[in-house]
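Good morning N.,

You mentioned wanting to compare the apo and holo forms, so I went ahead and generated the holo version with adenosine-5'-diphosphate. This is what I fed in:
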Amino acid sequence: MPLLTVKNLSLGYDGCRVIENLNFSVNEGDYLSIVGENGSGKTTLMKTLLHLQKPISGEISVSDGLKPDEIGYLPQQTQVQKDFPASVREIVLSGCQSSMGLKPFYGKKEKALATKNMELMGISDFKNRCYRELSGGQQQRVLLARALCATKKLLLLDEPVAGLDPVVTQQMYETIKELNDSGITVIMISHDIGAALEYSTHILHIGKDVFFGTKAEYIKSDKGFPASGIELGTGLSQTEPAFREVKSYA
Ligand code: ADP
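and this is what came out, ligand included:
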């Protein structure tokens, strides 16, 4: 049984539909990239999967007792969040809050989990530093460690490499892939089709035509890139390198 199943899902705001009749499923261990033009509804879908927003209609079901608060989420960062005046350790620990119920203080279990995830993300050395003093790449590692405190199973990442330089972007993709290889299912919004095709097992392309399938099916599909209506040099970033990669994967 899939970890997450979406059936006939329509979503949007105040009766204004952004996506209609969406169907897809995610199995344990999958790495799903959600791609599509700006404004196509990727973030709205992610918020709906997290139950932060109600669907207009349709169903989202999860298996294996996975609760919405057991999903690790790395949101897109706003400028205000980038300037958040808290220590790295405090931010990572806050990822444990969803599983604490009414308990008002972090206990040994939460502290040990935060320590483990800071080590895993290579950020232990600056755990007492203020988050807002860190580089963009370090901040994303902190947020990834925070998301890992909330989950052992499923990570939802909303453009985790936005604003990072190419070297740090590559490192971030490698880290996410390692987490996926360790058994964590990944659903990631990406503007980078090249990276989506390199790292993911499945692609959900939202737009005029919706496509869901494996990476190989996406490349072969007439609905897939580049037949999706995204022209080279417009819309998605890095479309040109991605186009070259599509050819090399086909
Ligand atoms: P993407 O992540 O693909 O760029 P979004 O999910 O952010 O797209 O937005 C999809 C559509 O929903 C856009 O037309 C956007 O303007 C609209 N939208 C996003 N957030 C809201 C909101 N809080 N209220 C009303 N409309 C919104």
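The beta strands are 4-13, 16-26, 31-36, 57-62, 71-74, 154-158, 185-189, 202-206, 211-214.

Happy to go through it together on a call whenever suits you.

Best,
F.
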